[in-house]
Write a structure and sequence with these properties.
single chain; mainly alpha; Rhomboid-like fold; 2 domains; two-stranded antiparallel sheet; globular; Pc22g04790 protein; membrane; Rhomboid-like_sf; serine-type endopeptidase activity
Length: about 280
């Protein structure tokens, strides 16, 4: 995608703003102690089960985590551009119960007993949701180029995104590893159509189009149920080809061949998205 900034990614922009604003609010109002979870004493014996619902939406408790989370969300904006607002909103909503409830449940019932009560802490922040989105980035967005460092280390333009994600996952070692791992697993399970409940694979649930400011797309009698989706991706193909052509300011036969190659790559990318959908 050649579009810069957060253009055509309103949900990602909202998530980015919320991540920063909620983290700042925790510091301004001095309520960091209400956001994190200590299994003992918060869950046992005080029975503050509301923390299991609030820890992910409360924001990060330190500026380092907020910074790397914001950087990672910005990198993941291309997922929304590839999917569209409606699928992005459906993904965030249908994975939210899993990314919110699984980490505290696993920590209280499994990880803490296995660690002999040594692992007792769950840091706040939307880490699990971000890593679930990172799993979609890994599976959906192809790399643009690769480069080699030394003789054996092969990297791509996506490597910087994974480095930022690793920094976030290791920021409060080992406590932050749990929400990061759970988020990644939930994202992979969502993509593999394994999540029960509101998963589009199990119930066909999708966010209504009007919620994200879109109109319901319906196929005609001759086009079948997939006609609207094919039309949508044809529009995306034309937009990608137009961006490739406008971005390449070169002239001559060599430039024409390069533009045709870029257009073919854009078409293959859209076809891949169509199959994934």
């Amino acid at each position: 995608m050649l579009t810069s900034g957060l253009t055509n990614a309103p949900l990602t922009k909202s998530l980015l703003i919320y991540t920063i604003a909620s983290s700042i609010a925790l510091s301004l109002f001095d309520i960091k102690h209400l956001a994190v979870i200590y299994v003992s004493p918060h869950i046992w014996p005080y029975a503050q089960f509301w923390r299991a619902l609030a820890w992910q939406v409360a924001g990060f408790t330190n500026s380092t985590e907020a910074l790397f989370a914001a950087m990672l969300v910005y990198h993941l904006r291309v997922v929304e551009r590839a999917w569209g607002k409606r699928k992005m909103a459906t993904f965030l909503l249908t994975t939210l119960p899993y990314t919110t409830l699984l980490p505290p449940i696993l920590l209280a019932l499994l990880i803490r007993p296995l660690s002999l009560n040594n692992l007792n802490y769950l840091p706040s922040g939307p880490t699990a949701t971000i890593f679930a989105l990172l799993a979609q980035y890994h599976a959906t967005i192809p790399y643009t180029y690769r480069y080699r460092i030394g003789l054996s280390l092969l990297l791509s333009d996506k490597s910087t995104t994974y480095i930022v994600a690793a920094q976030l996952a290791l920021s409060q070692f080992p406590a932050m590893l749990l929400p990061s791992a759970v988020g990644w697993v939930v994202g992979v399970a969502w993509r593999a159509e394994l999540l029960p409940g509101l998963s589009p694979a199990s119930t066909g649930f999708r966010i209504p189009a009007w919620v994200v400011g879109e109109q319901e797309r319906r196929g005609g009698p001759d086009s079948g149920s997939g006609g609207a989706e094919r039309e949508r991706y044809e529009d995306l193909r034309r937009r990608l080809e137009g961006e490739v052509a406008s971005a390449s300011g070169l002239e001559g036969s060599g430039a024409q061949a390069q533009r045709r190659a870029n257009s073919a790559e854009a078409g293959a990318f859209v076809n891949r998205l169509t199959r994934d959908w």
